[in-house]
TrEMBL record:
It comes from Oceanirhabdus seepicola. InterPro entries: PAP2/HPO (IPR000326), PAP2/HPO_sf (IPR036938). The keyword Hydrolase applies. This is Phosphatase PAP2 family protein. GO terms for cellular component: plasma membrane. One of its GO terms (molecular function) is hydrolase activity. The lineage of its organism: Bacteria, Bacillati, Bacillota, Clostridia, Eubacteriales. Residues 31-140 form the Phosphatidic acid phosphatase type 2/haloperoxidase domain.
Amino acid sequence: MPAITYLGSLTFAVIFCLSTLIINNDMLHQFAISTIISLTLGASITQIIKKKANRTRPFLLLEDLYIKKIGIDDYSFPSGHTCAAFSIATMSGLYFPFLSIYVIPLSSLVGISRMYLGVHYPTDVVIGMLIGAISSFITFNLLLLI
């Protein structure tokens, strides 16, 4: 699960976006820029909510919860990793619909891994999913207007 959880990390998102930017293809460049905007929007919303909600992480409150120590910030709600995973997955599905069957389940596994590792509650993950997906839909549709 720790390997899966890092598919929603900042490191993975940066490597993913830079990889698509260096390929000499106009559609991939547009996809990369859209994904970067969506990730930025989603992360901004997530951080604002985290600081307002101040929700303590499950492993700090639940006794006998076995977790692997992974890098985390202070607050639980909503899940930033899940938001990032769904931003990338949703944008991938919007640009390349045939990938949806692979990327949506994979991003769902990121959310499941966050709960399994004891760093998020189910509601943290669901709201992270929604923020990530909505950020991508907004970004995709706004860029169509330009």
